Amino acid sequence: MSAGSVALVVPEDIRIPSWDLYEVSIPCTVFGKPQPDLAEPWYDLRMCGDGTSVEGRQGDEPAGSGLQLRSRYGLADLAGADTVIVTSVPDACVEDGAPVPGELVDALRHAYDGGSRMVSLCTGAFALAAAGLLDGRRATAHWMHTAQLAERHPKVRVDDSVLYVDDGDVLTSAGLTAGLDLCLHLVRRDLGAHVANQLARRMVVPAHRPGGQAQFIDHSVPATDPRGLGPVLAWALENLHRPLTVEDLARRAALSPRTFYRRLREATGVTPLQWLLNQRIGQAQGLLESTSLPLEKVAERSGLGTANNLRHHFLKQVGVSPTDYRRTFPAAGGERPHGT
User: Fold this and answer.
1) Residues of the signal sequence (predicted)?
2) What residues make up the domain containing 44?
3) Distance (Å, rounded) from C-alpha 222 to C-alpha 155?
4) Domains in the chain, number
5) pLDDT given for residue 332 in this prediction
């Protein structure tokens, strides 16, 4: 497992509205701050200017408002990076159909042809699509812009219902916090579940939200509130190996099953059974990454029952088999995995 280099495309000589800075700051926070106690070396982050000169203001915002970013690196420095991230394109490219700057398109194609993993956050998907990197692929963006993305790029299979899409060497996310979810997902892929979980804890954010979770939710995670869902779900996470049911959780929360179902769905955007399955798949991922346990044991410890059941749900949720997933991560102690 390796962190590698990350080239972040930033708008150079473009005045960025304050609300667009969030997506730029996410990769800087995740990949730019060394974490020597988690992984050494950490990622090598380079901010690369795209050379555009469009002024990013909207509506009645006065000319010259926003912040200017200047970078030491140019688009030529995208080539050779292990990962290239595009967080946004000028608003005119989204709202008015203006073309994505040709220099950026060419640089993205060149980086991809050279073997870089390509990532977009929010409207950055328009840049990857303009470069032809999303043709024939499933991809997403912020739900407010997916209609324009689908209309402008009919070869892209746009999915507006998910937080992010991992298509191997090309990954896309919805906007705002979904971009953080995708960046943590990349850390999980590169350095394993333990590192990603510890980093998320330091950032005080959920360790893992599956990419297939809906964009349209009231809360990303259940808050610790007077209704008491937090402690119940924390208990469930410690007891995933047990055959838990909605009735079990509702009883522990001192709620009726119907009320518990409604409150959990309001808090997470998924049903209690889907929430349990998501957590069990996450635990299975951690075991596959960090141990050489046979699949039967992984299934038992994660509450998925049998190896066949693990394979079925893992393939459906993650997109690869447990065997293929495990091959990506050396087993603990350098041992070869058993039972795969």
Assistant:
1) none
2) 5-199
3) 37
4) 3
5) 41
